[in-house]
Amino acid sequence: MAKTVGIGVTGGIAAYKIADLVSRLKKEDIDVIVIMTEAATKFITPLTFKTLSDREVLVDLWDDSKEWKVQHVGAAEQLDLLVIAPATANFIAKVAHGLADDLLSTIVLANTAPLLLVPAMNSNMYKNQAVQDNIKKLKDYGYMVMEPNSGVLACGVTGQGRLPEIDQIYAEIKRLLFPKQDLLGKRVMVNAGTTCEDIDPVRFIANRSTGKMGFSIAQDAQTRGADVILVCGNSPLEPPLGVEFVPVWGAEEMCEVMQKYQPACDIIIGAAAVGDFRIKTRAEQKMKKTGNASEELVLTLVGTPDILKTLGKNKKPKQIMVGFAAETENILENAKKKLDSKNLDFIVANDVTMEGAGFSSDTNIVTFISRNGEIESLPKMSKQDVAAAILDKVVKLL
Ligand code: C5P
Fold first, then answer.
1. pLDDT digits 0-9 by tens, 59-106
2. Where in the sequence is the domain holding 342, given as residue range(s)?
3. How far apart are CA 307 and CA 289, in angstroms?
4. Which of 136, 274, 316, 392 suits 287 as a labelling partner, its CA being 20 to 30 A distant?
5. Residue 251 falls within a domain, yes or no?
6. Are residues 123 and 33 in the same domain?
7. Is 155 a catalytic residue?
8. CA distance 233 to 216
9. Which mutation among 306, 320, 346 tests ligand 1's pocket best, with the greatest number of atoms within 8 A of CB?
10. 323 lines ligand 1 (CB under 6 A)
């Protein structure tokens, strides 16, 4: 059955570029319902979109629709995907706060299909903390938000805020509308987040990992049809829908849990930032200071198990194992050593000192190093795209 995608156009200068997107989707026999805000009609006319999409363009909440009894509910029910492009700061704020004061924002609330937002605005507006907080909120709700490109903006300044290329938006829409099912029937275990090692009942040692990379892999594997177990240390993120979520605390617990699941898994991906040391003796009671400002405290640390190494020793025939190597120097050399010592099929190396790579960032810059010595460097990508590239490589190995 033909897919239907809603394209919500809001009032930014990049609105004119969306005509090309609608035209390309129509050529692929994808049904397109264009919904415009009042402000968007100041930049491009509904007639343009009506001609390209070959159907009425929806603008007014109060229009008497010929097609649906209740316009915003009827239109929302028909969608396989809703895309807001360009998404202005104002519209992002409305979605983040659940406002429904025009047709498009009302459809967003009534919509149950995946929602993709494509922000485009002046770079200072994009960097503004309120906008960033709203974008974070949208991501926490499980909506997908594309990263704007950097370059010269319509207002004349250079910075981040450009609408991504239509090619990029089109590829993302195609990926969401027609997800690959190349991991159907496979069981994938991913670990993510930071492990935590207790000092006393209230304090612990952890690291800066948020779990974004591992969550993106788990989510993508699930979309591709796999049964996914996500073994997760501390992370502020919401567990992805449809994934078996196993929360753990320390490295030893993570290792035990993963060993238990290992025999049933076809693919194991270690994206967690596992602590290498734990406190030798955890204090039973909260440790007290003496009040002396020059006081020193010495904690004795002992090593934790290397989880992938442990699993690597018990690797089943045909089981695929992938690890990460977050490095600050001699990246390839260090990563290769880890590939061998952990018995991995390939390792994903990244230089965590580079801007746009590593912990907390929404993007990553990685190099794949395979057992046969093959090295493949990828450009800066969103963590979702890195996840997709990792799983594409896994599929080739299956
Ligand atoms: O040795 P290093 O910590 O740099 O290796 C990184 C890779 O090994 C990651 O995939 C990480 O999840 C995994 N690892 C592990 N157990 C540890 C330390 C790291 O599985 N104790």
1. 999 888 888 878 888 899 999 999 999 999 999 999 999 999 999 999
2. 187-282+296-397
3. 35
4. 274
5. yes
6. yes
7. yes
8. 15
9. 306
10. yes
